[in-house]
Design a protein that fits this description.
six-stranded antiparallel beta barrel; seven-stranded antiparallel beta sheet; disordered N terminus; Thrombin, subunit H; 40% strand; alpha+beta; 285 residues; globular; single chain
Length: 285
Amino acid sequence: MKIYQALWLSMALSLAGCASTQPSGGNSKTTAKTAVIDDRAIIGRMTREASRMMDSGKPVSMESLIGQLKKEPSVSIRLPDGQRGQLKHKREAVVVVGGVYKCDRCTRWHVAPASGFLIADDLVVTNYHVVNQPERAALAVRLFDGRVFMVESVVAASERYDLAVLRVPETGVSPVTLGQAAPVGAKVSLFSHPNQHFYTLSEGRVARYFMTQRNRRRVPAMSITADFGRGSSGAPVLNESGQVVGIVTSTESLYYTDKDGEQKNLQMVFKNCVPVSQLRELIGG
């Protein structure tokens, strides 16, 4: 538990768009700082940077990215050597993946954020369904340090596994490493951006592995007890060494009563993820 508390504090203090305060009269050597993440500042800056690049440059269009996505490219990707360590050493690898669009009520650009993570300093993993959004104009990626890049291409994708690997300019950021399959009961944690609550930490355990169906094909999936919600799609599920063991993909709500399209008495929400083995398969092991 102390590791997660230290991680959260360290991450929040380092994140662009957050402020810290310290009680007056406190001993700087013994008094912990309180960090406050400014969600509005984060989405505001990302929107401004994405808007500037949309208006002044020629980013790759979402139409082009979806065209690449539908071809489901699969390439062998050589990843950096894996390193074990505390979760806080991996925090910079978590990114915001945002679809850029204009609404029908104004002429400004907007960003619809989801989650993702770096597996190389120029490769971002997220969900297939995050990219497959034809109503968007382009796709932007915001790094932990506040920098924003436009996605250049799709280098690997699988609709069945709900995974996409995207290329961005070289970031110089140390990527997260891939772990092995986590057994049922193993402790896991994740950082994601549920409903623009950026870099929210949740923790739990692997609940089970089960069969589901995507793209009319049966595929193994993983369920965890750690919370996540809309905007968390594509976030890395991490083991206690900070290695990826799964990727957030969807939720499934269980209601006691479901009749004639009316659902009542919510009982459980299943948190479903892609096992890391499917990402390994996609990128060539």
